[in-house]
Structures are given as C-alpha cells and as structure tokens.
Design brief:
alpha/beta, Isoleucyl-tRNA Synthetase, domain 2, Rossmann fold, Isoleucyl-tRNA Synthetase, Domain 1, 6 domains, four-stranded mixed β-sheet, 26 helices, elongated
Length: 769
C-alpha cells in the first residue's frame, strides 16, 4: 500500500527502525537516520542505500559530512562476522547471505527478493569476491601540502600537455592523505618500533641506527630478520617492538630517484646532478601510481618536482575493448606477431597509435600488418629499385657528387631536409605522435612520386649527367632515410644501411645505430618548390578524379588542362613542373589562369579541433559566422592572414577554406587548387590512347616470360584495323617505351592475344641478342 509520495530530501533527518537489533545502542551517536547524497543513483537498485562507514569510502564521507559519528566494524580480517553479530558469528560475509535473507523473511522485514546482475569487485588472482573494509593504517599527510604538489606539477613538461592540468592536475587537487602501510608479509618493513609500555614511537632511519639500538648487524632487512628485534631505551620502562605492517610498494617506487643511489648515505653528488631527472615514460594509470608518488615524495623531501619531462602512454586493450587476458586469450601472442610481420611493424604500429597520445588503444593485428603495407614494404621496394638498376649499370656513389639541376631531385632532397627538421623538432619536444606520420608521408612521396616520375631517367642507355644525378639523389635519400628511420624501424633500417654501404660508401660505421643522427641541411631546403610540387600532386589527383567521373582511362590522352589559382607566382612555379603533369594526366597542353571567380566559389568552415578548444561554449555562434563568410571576406583572410569577427581574431589555421565548382563549368577543386579538364575525345586522341594500351600489354608479356628490365626485344604484332592504325602512327613511341629494336606487323594472328576496348591484339616477343 502506498501511503504517500514525496521527494527524498523531505525524508532527510528522519529516524527509522533497523531490521536487525545488533547495534541499537548507537542511535545516540546518530545511527539509523536518513541522509542524502548524489552518489546514489536510480540507474540500478532502489535508489536507497544503507550507509556502513567501515565498508565504503562514500559511506564514510557522507556520514562524516552529516556529523554522524556512529561507526562499527563487525567483520574480522578473515572476512567473517564477529561476536557483535551473534546469529552469524564466524561465518564469512558472503557465505552468510542466505541465512541473512532467511532471517529477514522470518521477521517480516523482507519487502522483495530478486536476483540481479551488478558490478562487484573480485580478486584478480583467486577470482573470489572481495570486500572494502577499514583498518588502522599509517599515513603520509598529503592534504596539508596540496598547494606544494600542484606547484611542483606545474614545473613538469607533460606529453600530451593536457595531462598536466587534466588527469594529473585534478588528481593532485583532490589528493587525500596517503595510507602507506600494508597488512601482509612480503614487502619492506615499516621501520617503526613502539614501546609496549609507554606507547612511544621510534622511526629508525638507517641500518647503522638499527644496529646501534639492537646490537644486531643485518644486510637483509626483510620481516623474517627484523620482526623479532627488540630493544630498550635506558631509563625508559618497556620494550620497543616493530609494528607488523610493511610499506606500500608505491612508496618504494616513488623513492626510486634516491633509493637506487643509496642516497643520502652515499653518492650525494651523483644524485644532485641527476635530480630532477630529465625524462621518464609510463602509462596513463601511473597518474595515480608512480607519477603521483614521485611528486608526493619529491615535494615532501626536496620541495621540488622529481622529473622535468614525462611522456604518458595510453593503455593497450584487446581488440574487443576488454583488458588483455591470458585466460581469455583475446590477443595474439607478441612472438607470433613479430614472426609474421616483424618487430619493426609492431614498433611502428604502437608508435603511430593513440597510445602515444595517452589514449586507450584497441590492439589490432590488422593494424600491425598495415605498417608493412604502408611503410616497410614501399621503403624496401624503393631500395630494391635502386639496387636493381645500380647493379645493371655497375653504378657506385661518388664521394662528392655534383649538385643536380633536376627539379624533382631538388624537391626530394628538400623534402628530406624538411623531414629531418620535423623529426628533430618533434623528438626534442617529445611529440612521438607527429613523427611517424611524417615518415609515412615521406616514404609515400619517395615511392609514389619521386621514383615513379623519374623511372625513365634510370632506363637511359648511357650514363649521362642526368642519370648520374638520379642515382646520386636516390642513393643519398635512401641512405639518410635509413639513418632517420633507425630509432623507429631499427631492423629494416640496419638491413638497408648495410646493403647500401656495400655500394662502397667511404668510412661508413659498421651499423646504422653507430651513425650520428642526420641533421637538416638548410642550403638544400626549398619551401617554395615543396609547395609547388605539393600543388602539382593535388592537380594530378584531381585530374585522376575527373577522369574517373567521366570514365576516361588515363592511357587515353586529352587535349587540354587548365590550372586555376589566383596566385600568379604559384602558377609560375607549377609551370616549371608542366612536363610531369602532362605525363601523369596524359594531356597535350596546359593553360594557367588566375580568374578563379570564372570557375569556382569559395566557402569556409571552422577548424573544429582548434576552435572548439579555444572558444568553448562560444564555438557554435562563431561557427555560424564563419560558415556565412563571403568570398571577399575569405579573400581578405587569405591575403592578410587574419580576419576579425565580433572582436575575435582568426587566422588561416582557425578557418578552413574550400572551393567548389560553379554550375556549368567542368572545374573540380580541393582546398588548395582547382582545375578544368576537358574530357572530349578525337580520333587522333583515341589512337594515341590505344598505342599506350599496346605498350601496357607488351610490358605485361615481358614480365610474364621472365625478361630482365633492361633486356632489348623484338616484337611481332597482329591487330585489328583501328588498332593497327594506332600502332603505325605511334611506332616510335611503342618501341622506345618497350626497349624494342624491331616492331614487325604480322599478317596472321600470334600466340599471345589481348582484347583492348573491343579491338584485338596478338603479339610475340623475343629477346634481342
């Protein structure tokens, strides 16, 4: 029967009848009255929780705040009820559950009985339930030095930076007194002896003091040797006996900076030279463990921060998001992963994961495999490319090669210097998470741009200056890349380094790990060229995108490409790369225009990760203002590098500018540049495209029959009418690209047959002697 409905707050202060009468005498101390606190939720249970201050931190806090002093602990150290609970004395608290329920039923106090699933603590070793229980402990008074702890924390460089005022800072702001004693056998004995008559305490501070007081010399100070040591103080009645507790092991961990040097008893100079330490690294959970105890003890003893720089890594979880567990077998054994993909792949995966940003990471075998695909295999293939052609040409590096005037050589060497500068800056600031992406980007540029766009230079028959420059550039790049990659992929770096030094590098150290780490050469850095090549890459990618949209193959030549950007200086720089753009996009001509307004319109969006953090609650109003910017306002931002909206100043880093094609044009854009690519085809263009398809099939056949890349060949070809006209018109191009000395048209079909856009081609290839 419902008597009334009312809010919980109106019940606060009312008393109630306890369901058991064991402790009714404690009513005078405030027991058996209703209190309120927001830690109780309606998500589970009834919304009503009894408070047992001896068995819960929240319980203790709530009753203390309410001024209730009643406290009772009727459970012994074995987890069994004491004589204060006569009906269940000697029974383990969990084993007594059924008897307690039965007694409640018999007394009529049981309102409802259900089986519910809820979270409950278990011992990780025995897999048995555990309870929270108060015990007498020894404490370090942390609360009285919170301000000093917070000040010490501010002197530490945390990576990631948000840890300082976030997880670590918040923990210190709410630090409570630290219970440093443990009631177990194993551990470092707390060096406190108490007089069994007077209760006086002596904390022994050295082995010498212990020997002086007890007359016993000890090297091993564990419990089995010190627990029985008893001593007296002249003129004072009673014996001094050691307390039973041992130290919290985190106290020892926090003492590491001085304990490892046996300070202050020796090595004073060594300790003072190395404290605070330069650098440590550990997991995010150590904000409540090692990091915390280092700060507490360092502040308490020396009134300073214990370390200058801390890198915090996240916690590795299984792929299903659960804790990695041997019993659950929810992860692949590391030795099997390394056997399959290599230690370098595992290393790169971890360095490139959220772990180095102090984030939780669900470990993925696929992620490790991806490191091989994205970085290690392309890097190795780049070296094999150099090795293959260097062996064919019997090339070896010169000690001081002449500077190259090839624009792509100058670009890749500039990018190499930028990479080295990036690594130096990011490593100096402990930002590992920015290093591996930069390495990946460079390897991709080296393999998919530099080598692919320069392959023809290595195929030249004579060792002219241009070919020599190509070899020297690629060799220098790969050699210095192996040095740069050494800390991140040490095994492959060593393999490539040793094979490269076999080319005859002068005075090369025995191992890549004995080399000085490479430093950027400012004279080789050309940021304007790097920007131009970057825009060239965007142009090529946009052109491929346009071809895909129009379903026109890259082998089919197109008449004209128009590059669109309002900066004439940038267009001039891009113009120096026209040959590469024409080759990659297979276009006959390129035009350049600064008349952006004829082709595209501009729009802006906020850089959410940057502005969200900076603007907080004001982000949404400013997002609307940024998205409403006109083209002229966006131009102002791009020209001056700054724009002010409602008193708030924004830079191009804060506002992202995008381009979109004007309706009725063939333009296509990304954030950086726009192009207009006409995809109309003429018969001449179609025949040239067919000729490129013929080259592709010949190259495939060369590979299938096992010819060397440098082998010269003779070709016989039989083709349908239109394909035959294409071969006839582009005979010179086909022979040059396939290293053919002879191309003969056959009147009859030949063994190897291909269908090219419904045109039939059959060929026969032979190695020329």
């Amino acid at each position: 029967t419902v008597i009334s409905e009312l809010k919980g707050a109106s019940l606060v202060g009312l008393s109630y009848e306890p369901v058991f009468d064991y402790f009714t005498d404690l009513r005078a101390e405030g027991a058996f009255q209703i209190v309120a606190d927001d830690y109780v939720s309606t998500d589970s249970g009834t919304g009503i929780v009894h408070q047992a201050p001896a068995f819960g931190e929240d319980d203790y806090r709530v009753l203390k705040a309410a001024g209730i002093t009643a406290t009772v602990c009727p459970v012994d150290m074995a987890g069994c009820f004491t004589e204060e609970v006569p009906d269940f004395v000697g029974q383990h608290v969990k084993a007594a559950d059924k008897g307690i329920i039965r007694k409640l039923k018999d007394s009529g106090a049981l309102f409802r009985q259900d089986v519910i699933v809820h979270s409950y603590p278990f011992c990780p070793r025995s897999d048995t339930p555990i309870i929270y229980r108060t015990i007498d402990s020894w404490y370090v008074r942390v609360e009285q030095m919170r301000d000093r702890l917070i000040a010490a924390n501010q002197q530490i460089n945390w990576v990631p930076g948000h840890i300082k005022d976030g997880r670590m800072g918040k923990w210190l702001e709410n630090a409570i007194d630290w219970a440093i004693s443990r009631n177990r056998y194993w551990g470092t004995p707390l060096p406190v002896w108490i007089n069994d008559v007077s209760g006086n305490q002596i904390c022994i501070g050295s082995r010498e003091e212990l020997t002086r007081l007890t007359g016993v010399e000890l090297d091993d100070l564990h419990r089995e040797n010190v627990d029985d040591l008893v001593f007296q103080i002249p003129g004072e009645p009673g014996d001094y006996r050691r307390i039973e507790e041992v130290l919290d092991c985190w106290f020892e961990s926090g003492s590491m900076p001085y304990a490892q040097l046996h300070y202050p008893f020796e090595n004073q100079d060594m300790f003072e030279q190395g404290f605070p330490a330069e650098f440590i690294a550990e997991g995010l959970d150590q904000t409540r463990g090692w990091f915390y105890t280092l700060i507490v003890l360092g502040t308490a003893l020396f009134d300073t921060h214990p370390v200058k720089n801390v890198i915090v890594n996240g916690i590795v979880m299984a792929e299903d998001g659960k804790k990695m567990s041997k019993s659950l077998r929810n992860y692949s054994p590391p030795d099997e992963l390394m056997e399959t993909y290599g230690a370098d792949a595992l290393r790169l995966y971890l360095i490139n994961s959220g772990l180095v940003r102090a984030e939780e990471q669900r470990f993925s075998d696929t992620g490790v495999k991806d490191m091989v695909r994205r970085a290690l295999l392309p890097w190795l293939n780049a070296f094999r490319f150099l090795q293959t052609y260097a062996n064919i040409d019997q090339w070896s590096p010169q000690e001081n090669p002449a500077p190259s005037d090839n624009i792509m050589d100058r670009w890749i060497l500039s990018r190499l210097q930028t990479l080295k500068a990036t690594i130096a800056e990011e490593m100096e600031n402990d930002r590992l998470y920015n290093v591996v992406p930069a390495l990946f980007e460079f390897i991709e540029e080296l393999t998919n741009w530099y080598i692919r766009l320069n392959r023809a230079r290595f195929w030249q028959e004579t060792m002219n200056a241009d070919k020599q420059a190509a070899y020297a550039t690629l060799y220098t790049t790969l050699y210095e890349l192996s040095l740069s990659m050494a800390p991140f992929a040490p095994f492959l770096a060593e393999t490539i380094y040793k094979e490269m030094t076999a080319f005859g590098t002068q005075d090369a150290p025995l191992s890549v790990h004995l080399c000085a780490y490479p430093e950027p050469e400012a004279a080789l850095m050309q940021p304007i060229l790097e920007q131009a090549v970057s825009r060239m890459q965007h142009i090529i990618l946009l052109g491929r995108q346009k071809r895909n949209q129009e379903k026109v193959k890259t082998k089919m030549p197109l008449a004209k490409l128009t590059v669109i950007h309002k900066d004439p200086a940038l267009l001039d720089e891009i113009g120096k790369l026209a040959d590469y753009i024409q080759t990659e996009l297979n276009v006959k001509a390129i035009d350049y225009t600064t008349a952006e307004a004829d082709y595209i319109s501009l729009y802006a969006k906020p850089n959410s990760p940057v502005l969200g953090k900076r603007l907080g609650k004001q982000f949404n109003p400013f997002r609307q203002k940024i998205e409403a910017l006109s083209s002229s306002q966006i131009d102002e931002l791009q020209q001056s590098g700054v724009i002010t909206l409602d008193g708030e100043t924004f830079t191009p880093e804060d506002i992202l500018v995008f381009r979109e094609a004007i309706t009725g044009t063939d333009a296509i854009s990304d954030r950086f540049i726009s192009i207009d690519l006409k995809c109309e085809l003429t018969p001449e263009l179609i025949r040239e495209g067919l000729a490129r398809e013929v080259v592709n099939r010949i190259q495939k056949t060369r590979k299938d029959i096992g010819l060397n890349v440098a082998d010269r060949i003779s070709i016989k070809a039989h083709a349908s009418a239109e394909l035959g006209r294409a071969i006839d018109q582009h005979r010179e191009y086909i022979m040059k690209d396939t290293l053919a000395l002879q191309l003969e048209i056959s009147a009859t079909p030949l063994p190897t047959v291909f269908d090219i856009d419904d045109e039939l081609l059959s060929i026969e290839i032979m190695r020329s002697v």
